[in-house]
Amino acid sequence: MEINGFINHLTEEFEDLGVFELTPSTVLREIPGWNSMHILLLVAMIDFRYQVLLSGEHLKMVVSVNDLFELVKQKQGEH
Amino acid sequence: MVIQGLTYHFPARQIDITDASFENKQQYDAHQTFVGTSTLYQASSDLTASDLAFNAAIKLLVDVDLNDIDFLIFSSLTLDYHAPSTASILHKKLGLKAACGVMDLPLGCAGFPMALMTANGLFKTMNLNRVLVLLGEIPTRAVHPADASLKYVFGDAGVAVMLGQSMDTLYFEFGNDGDGFSSLNVQRGGARFPMDISYLESNREFPWLNQFGALSMDGHGILKLSLTHIPQAVYSLLDKYGLTLDQIDHVIFHQASNIVIDALQRKLNLPKEKVVNYLADGGNTISCGIPIAWAKAQEEMRFKAGDSIMVFGFGVGFSWCGSILKYH
Question: Per-residue pLDDT tens for B150-170?
Fold first, then answer.
């Protein structure tokens, strides 16, 4: 699992937010147009592509794209 | 068992959801993508869930001999009374015979398949002609106006379904995960948290919340429960029939929101055209959603004789129930 592939998957999900560039340091809540429902989109995508089902508790600690990437990697390792 | 007829009714007050309903266009676009509702219907304050079901029943029962109806099941989370059963009220109002049994099923989003399962059991154990399933829900009565996440999701509706005997054998897949309590509930108004004076006073401006209490939903929790339990339950159901998912022609999930339906469609690798979604007109109508989607697909001639239709209800509980019916 690599951060670039992960970012590509995130970008595909957020098509409705228009053109913007995601980097590892992008703060999710600061993406223009970010909405609480984008969290649900993230949860569904990560379950589908990475077989990790994140809870609200897990996501509380996530600020940046990289935090999310590291969390998914950690949860995959726990499988 | 077979579905012999199905009708639905929306109350007259129509709420159109437009970009003016939101702070900005982006919020509206997000609503369209994630929730998917364009029009909701709201029952006026003098109507109850049984009135909506009754109006659907009137359309269904034209030319039906009421003496053929041996059982009435009423599915609703917003019952007219604590006692007697609302099915009993409808039994009288429709003029059904005294030898017709009645039962309420206050089960929420899995209510329609659960009603099918109950009726199927009745048909199997007794020599019944017909079972009438009525469904009525008025969730708008339990939505706090300040709760923007719920305001444009839930709508009111009534449904009537006639069931009869047939050679079709039905199987059901069902289950429950009590951890779902915190994800979706209406806490006030029961024995655990009665409506005390401070609660009633807090709703001075929203008196409708004093009927059932306010609905509370954690969308993330519901999505997580859906993705945890439903795909597995779908495969278990298919096993019972000895079918694979590609042999199913149409899938009608609980009409919850686009995000839940789309996430399940993707996880199950279902072609999008097989997934029936009529959230746009009417929104999430709890147990009425699946049969309304069935009726609308039928109106649009999407079903043909012999098609296999999977219905899968899930939600509050967290409870689920599904089955596969042949279209006749």
Answer: 999 999 999 999 999 999 999
Record: contact A37-B228, CB cut-off 8 A: no
Q: What pLDDT shows up at residue A19?
A: 61
Decide if A37 touches B, using CB distance below 8 A: yes
Rounded to two decimals, the pTM is 0.95
A47: contact with B, CB 8 A cutoff: yes
Domains and CATH numbers, chain A: 3-71 (1.10.1200.10)
* Angstrom distance (rounded) from CA B101 to CA B242: 34
Burial class from Cβ neighbours inside 10 Å (0-12, 13-18, 19+) for residue B267 reads middle
**Helix runs in chain B, H state only:** 25-34, 49-60, 86-94, 111-125, 148-151, 197-202, 209-212, 219-241, 258-267, 289-299
pLDDT tens profile B204-244: 999 988 999 999 999 999 999 999 999 999 999 999 999 99
Q: Quote the pLDDT of residue B232.
A: 98
**B258's torsion region: left (phi>0), alpha (psi -120 to 50) or beta?**
alpha
CA distance to A3, A10, A41, B63, B274, per residue, from A16 (Å): 22, 12, 11, 50, 24
Which of B223, B227, B258, B262 is best to mutate for the A interface (most A CBs within 10 A)? B223
* Alpha-carbon Rg for chain A in angstroms: 12
Residue B309 near residue B324 (C-beta atoms within 8 A): yes
User: How would residue B109 be classed by pLDDT, with cut points 50, 70 and 90?
Assistant: very high
CA distance B304 to B269: 23
Residues B85 and B119: their CA atoms lie apart, in Å, by 17
Provide ipTM, 2 decimals: 0.90
Place of tokens 């959801």: B17
Residue A37 to residue B259, Cβ atoms within 8 A: yes
* Amino acid code (one letter) for A72: V
Contact flag B220-A39 (C-beta cutoff 8 Å): yes
Summary mean pLDDT of chain A: 89
Q: How far apart are CA A68 and CA A61, in angstroms?
A: 9
